[in-house]
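Consider the following input, taken from an annotated entry for Lactoylglutathione lyase (Fictibacillus macauensis ZFHKF-1).
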Amino acid sequence: MMETACCTLHVRSLKQALYFYEGLLGFEMCKRRPQLNYPGAWYELGEMILEVAEQKGAIAHTEVTISGMDDTSIKRRLDHFGIAYTMEAQALLLSDPEGHLLRFVRA
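Applying the prediction step yields:
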């Protein structure tokens, strides 16, 4: 039985991350995140949960591949807000405010 995978991105500013992921990309926060001992948010992206977790100090930069999302609506939002991105053959790439690379692959 397959279970949902989780990828955690550590950020220095949760407020800035919430604005980016919800306000700019249009992700919806998952309400079933348990009460943890650090501030953060979960986003359900198909079979994956993307966790954004606030961490003080240095953070490691991560690359995340997200498949099966409608890159047309994401491109439209990015263009509207003037956010830079790169198009590859089958993927849209952009960096979040912390420098994490997001790769959206067409289904």
